[in-house]
Amino acid sequence: MKDAEDVKAELSLVDQVARPAIPSLNISLYPLYRTSNVLLCLLLLVFLYAVFLASSVCWLTPNTFNKEDGLSTSGPITATITMPLDHFNLSNTRTFENHYWMNDIFYKYGGPIFFYDAGEAGVSDRGVNQSLGDPSTKFAPVELAEKYHGLTIIWEHRFYGQSMPFAVSNVTGIALDEYEAYRYLTIEQALEDAIYFTKNFDPPGYSMSQVEAMRADRSPWIWIGGSYPGNRAAMIRVRNPDIFFASWASSAPVQAQLDNSVYFNPIQQSMPTNCSADVHAAITYADEVLVNGKEKDVELVRRAIWLANSANPWNVSFAPSPAELSLWNISQILSYPFLSTPFTFQAFGYERSLGQFCNHIETWNPSNFTSFNNKSDFSALSTNDHSRIPTPTGLAEATSSEHAFHAYLHALIQKSISDFSPSPNPPPPISRADKVSWTWQLCSQNAKIQVSQHPAPHNLISRFLNVSNQLRWSCHAMFPYAPAVPDVDAMLRYGGWRMRPNNVMFTNGELDPWRGLGVQSDRGINPDALERKSTRTVPSCGEPPEGDAVFGVVWEGEVHVSDLRTGREGFEGSPVERGLELFGRALDEWLPCFWDEKSEWDSVME
């Protein structure tokens, strides 16, 4: 499992938690208000966006060459391509500059082009240097480039980072042209960007003949991505198999749907049973009081939640008083340990994300808790000696659900404080424009909204965090021109979790909350899963695995995008090393086909 330093390195590449890949990153909908509340909600976005072998090979042609003499190989190469804004309307001649970065130290004529998709966040200079030029980092695309004498590209997605086609507000991050801008941020436009790039690739420092040799009809292009970029890696092999020869799709939630409440199943299953039972009891208690409680009890629950939120060091305030908290505000505060923390379960796993949180709940001592009333202050919730000995069935079973609720708020406060303790090497801040762009993608097409499983017996999330509230406050408050519901068919057209592309390796973490929407899902985490079996047997070039199998592997005990990057010291035996070994075996099987097909085509042309 990745340690904190590994994930910090990933964060800096895509400027997000979770990928974290994040990606990075995490794919979630966050509160966005328009008009007078837009600054508050953009602060909230910052808070929540949390929420990623050297050897020669026989297939290389003998006519190899290195880079032109005099071109520096001291670090990553930064470049841009002038990209059409609209690929599907030839009368629209507007363009923008799309950024990309290269490492060509290992490149020889005929070597593959390893195209790494950075996805839903801008690419930072620090991240590029760590990924493409830091010897202490093992980055899968660079490792593959070294083995196969290839070239590595990091690609920045349109509307992120420096590849923003439109001017944005310096205050809100929203494109000044609003819908007239975001209408061009679609799955199809972004996929076509990559196709246009392969056909017009013109890296600095190469002659025209060398550039032509790098085009997709002369060299194999291989897409690598995790999370949303993993979706794109899989979809491109369905959409444009003649352009991108192969893909590695890591942690790809390809099944688009509105309700993604199954996201929380791997989290709940990873928690100790006493802790998950107490979280359920605490959340249920709060919800029931807010819906059916007496006025006095409702006031106390609101006050306690409002005070607990004040522990947030970023000082994201949902309302100036407890009475002004909406039920949706309350659901956002209560879901902090599972969705909004910078140390999400999907990126860090149970111990780093929730271990101490659960410990604070289970050792919370009700005997030194002063009964909470309308005059109680923050210290009534934040202070406890943690002297209770945990019991197998939990605090609520031994005492009461009300005690579990106050223990939950105490643990939330302690987690908020510890999550934001000073770090010696914090990731760079995430741009507001990036978060707005990703929210538009979620609201318009991607969906997969993380919501409550109420009334399920193991539910961890307030019932008020539901699809209708998320669409209302996360989408339409910011984008009144967004569709009533996201157009998930835009993704499902490529098959969703039924897809069977060839020349694709799928990998996933066993405990990844996003696995429930992937081709490697199972009914243990998603009752609707197809139960497709994974196989490590490399299928023949141009053929999917036999039957309904999926070529790839589910990494035991791992979480989200755990196999594309790690530190050199943690490389041996890691999912990165094992993933490279399996994908290497696949490329050894598949790449000769590219040259066979090319030779046949050349013969026809002659």
UniProtKB/TrEMBL annotation:
Q: Which UniProt keywords apply?
A: Carboxypeptidase, Glycoprotein, Hydrolase, Membrane, Protease, Signal, Transmembrane, Transmembrane helix
Q: Is Calcium among this UniProt entry's keywords?
A: no
The family database entries (PANTHER family) matched by this protein are listed as: PEPTIDASE, FAMILY S28, PUTATIVE (AFU_ORTHOLOGUE AFUA_4G03790)-RELATED (PTHR11010:SF109), PROTEASE S28 PRO-X CARBOXYPEPTIDASE-RELATED (PTHR11010)
Superkingdom, taxonomy of origin:
Eukaryota
User: Which family is this protein grouped under?
Assistant: Belongs to the peptidase S28 family.
One GO term in the molecular function aspect is:
serine-type exopeptidase activity
**Protein name, as recorded:** Extracellular serine carboxypeptidase
Q: Which Pfam families match?
A: Peptidase_S28
TM spans, by residue? Answer: 38-62
- Gene Ontology BP term (one): proteolysis
